[in-house]
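Journal club prep, notes for RB
We'll compare a predicted complex against what the paper describes. Inputs for the nicotinamide-adenine-dinucleotide case:
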Amino acid sequence: MPAGDPSAPAAHAGHAPARVDKEHSVRVELGARSYDILIGEGLIDRAGTEVAARLPGARVLVVTDERVAKLHLGRLEIALSGAGIASSTLVLPAGETTKSFAHLERSVDAILEARLERGDAVVALGGGVIGDLAGFASAVAKRGMGFVQVPTTLLAQVDSSVGGKTGINTPRGKNLVGAFHQPALVLSDVATLDTLSPREFAAGYAEVVKYGLIDRPDFFDFLEKNRAAIFAGGPERAEAIRISCEAKAAVVAADEEEHGARALLNLGHTFGHALERAVGYDAARLVHGEGVSIGMALAHRFSVKLGLATGQDAGRVAAHLRAAGLPTEISAIPGPAIGRETLMEAIAQDKKVSRGRLTFILTRGIGRSFLAGGVDPAEVEGFLDEELSQ
Ligand SMILES: NC(=O)c1ccc[n+]([C@@H]2O[C@H](COP(=O)([O-])OP(=O)(O)OC[C@H]3O[C@@H](n4cnc5c(N)ncnc54)[C@H](O)[C@@H]3O)[C@@H](O)[C@H]2O)c1
Ligand SMILES: O=C(O)C(=O)C[C@@H](O)[C@H](O)[C@H](O)COP(=O)(O)O
Ligand SMILES: [Zn+2]
């Protein structure tokens, strides 16, 4: 259940992480816009040479948040200047509420103030909030300029830094304003995860589990066997990041702008995004990965209710998420109770709604998720009433 300050630093699981002896590289195949995802220890120190190799001559604006700036910005700035890259920096407040029009305006203004040209680049150093916001700023400033992701949360390393979805929230819903804009490089320094709070590490793990639940049952088995090692920072952590990136890269390569199969990556998000909006994006109550965890548990239980999946599979999924310290019930969210109408209103704004009809990602079992269009709102309401009465 969500509890405590999501940004309180602590070494998760209290273990000294084993060093990863191997780097991984995953390619996102998008023709002329293909790019590498580099995964390994200490990669931030190589950021200057890796950026210069892909964007020769570019100057950069680094966008980060206050927490990440204190922990990891210095090394990035040294790496950039060491490679002869001129940089300026914008430091924004940490947290989901930074994905706003106000901070988009600040970010674009910083790009213009630095007199960056279209061939220059924005470098996002941080979690998914900074990646989504800075990526969107780089998509709209000068109608699109260079963009590099240096993700520092597990969630960003396995999901948000890959695939080019950028955007901001509005009070009416999550990510309702945005653009597809692919990075030129994703540089995932897994050592940055050592400073992440246990709560934020667990939140990112929900998106890792998601890939197993979509269509990789073997990966779900791997996660069941290796969860403790992943949380302790062993080599299995980088392995799980690599497999997650491979899974996402394959989906994105097949359907970059979500005309079909990419929507499977939204497993758990129809409910999850509605919950995030319902709490006003208040991280003290719920962060994105926790919303996805509850949403995936709900999607499995909803599938059981519709006669599609077995209670045994839904139970196995919820048990794994709970063992990782993640919430699986709406009632686990602290604070005032959330009403069915609030959730239905948010669900009606979901971007997968087509001609007024709801689309959910449902499942026939672990690793057997599918897109279900035309879901009856009355079925959803009945299901939510059951869930909210518990
Ligand atoms: N674009 C996509 O495809 C995509 C995919 C998944 C999620 N998202 C979005 O990503 C966002 C969530 O991202 P997130 O979970 O990374 O949240 P976040 O960016 O808010 O980061 C979580 C917290 O961790 C702190 N932090 C970041 N790196 C740290 C580090 N190395 N050490 C210590 N603290 C650190 C941040 O300051 C913040 O307080 C949501 O807005 C979600 O909608 C986007
Ligand atoms: O990359 C995708 O596609 C995803 O759906 C990944 C999700 O984990 C992520 O939260 C994404 O931002 C959701 O996108 P949205 O289109 O539902 O806003
Ligand atoms: Zn997500």
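Talking point for the session: The chain has two domains: 12-195, 198-388.
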